[in-house]
């Protein structure tokens, strides 16, 4: 009995070691990472909504947005396909950009310490960095 328990324990430890080794070799290369996204309406001043989700290793922002919308009913969005630049983010949670009103959803990345950058590509091309804080800001152009 004692032997059986010891054998089980050794097998379990072996698995543990194997798992640690496996995740070690993967660390920083293929692990998904966590990012946060804030939906900020600077025109109506509706309260911000902040969400946490994951991205695949070097996955595009659009993928993380899709994953979030599948898991959280509080985040819905639509894109319009552009032949040259891919998906244009048109609507978030029912709020649509409008050419007549000159409104749109701007894509921003908060690098911390008040350093907010404006990516020079859209949601289909931007690859978030681990722990990125993405801001979707509804604003005027
Ligand atoms: C004007 C403009 C805008 C205006 C468009 C308003 C309007 N309805 O006219 C506004 C302010 C909305 C805009 C927004 C953005 N833009 Co812009 N925009 C331009 C600009 C200066 C001119 C486009 C134009 O009028 N072309 C002439 C018309 C006749 O051609 P068109 O095909 O009909 O143009 C349409 C597309 O360009 C589209 N569009 C504009 N920007 C973007 C961005 C993306 C990702 C997509 C899919 C479509 C798109 O809107 C135009 C009107 O419908 C170009 C640079 C350039 N000089 O071309 C950048 C440009 C197209 N934009 C760019 C970017 C990155 C953005 C943003 C992602 C910036 C951000 N970080 O928020 C956002 C889009 C966010 C979102 N909601 O998805 C990049 C795209 C590069 C890329 N490979 O993704 C460009 C090339 C500028 C750059 N940085 O080099 N943009
Ligand atoms: C909403 O988010 C934006 C962008 O992060 C920030 O500047 C603003 O202060 C926030 N507003 C509130 C009420 O928290
Ligand atoms: C955009 O705004 C204009 C002016 O307020 C309005 O007439 C139009 O219906 C709006 N377009 C869309 C697609 O909502
Ligand atoms: C802000 O972030 C950008 C991109 O990471 C970096 O190039 C720039 O030096 C930063 N600016 C400041 C003031 O930290």
How would you characterize the overall build of this protein?
The protein contains two helices and eight strands, in the order αββαββββββ. It is α+β, with helices and mostly antiparallel strands and 141 residues long. It has a single domain, classed as Beta Complex (Ferric Hydroxamate Uptake Protein, Chain A, domain 1), CATH 2.170.130. A five-stranded mixed beta sheet has the order 2-1-8-6-7, covered by helices on one side. A hairpin with a 2-residue loop joins strand 4 (86-92) and strand 5 (95-96). The radius of gyration is 21 Å and the shape is globular. The termini are far apart. Mean pLDDT is 86; it is low at 14-26. The site of one 2-acetamido-2-deoxy-beta-D-glucopyranose (NAG) has 3 residues, from loops. Keywords: Signal. Residues 81-139 form the Transcobalamin-like C-terminal domain. It holds the Pfam family DUF4430. One of its GO terms (molecular function) is cobalamin binding. This is Transcobalamin-1-like.
Ligands (ions, cofactors included) = cobalamin, 2-acetamido-2-deoxy-beta-D-glucopyranose
- N-to-C CA distance: 74 Å
Number of self-contained structural domains: 1
Q: Considering DSSP H and I runs of 4 or more, what fraction of the residues is helical?
A: 25-40%
Which assembly state applies to the chains in this document?
single chain
**Broad CATH class:** Mainly Beta
Class inferred from helices and paired strands? alpha+beta
**Which regions are unreliable across 5 or more consecutive residues at pLDDT < 50?**
14-26
- CATH architecture annotation name: Beta Complex
* Element pattern in H and E: HEEHEEEEEE
Strand order of the biggest β-sheet: 2-1-8-6-7
Largest sheet: 5 strands, mixed
Mean pLDDT over the residues: 86
Stated plainly, the CATH topology is called Ferric Hydroxamate Uptake Protein, Chain A, domain 1
How many strand elements? 8
Helical region count?
A: 2
Strand content bin: 25-35%
Domain Transcobalamin-like C-terminal: 81-139
GO molecular function: cobalamin binding
InterPro entries: Cobalamin_Transport, Transcobalamin-like_C
Signal peptide: 1-27
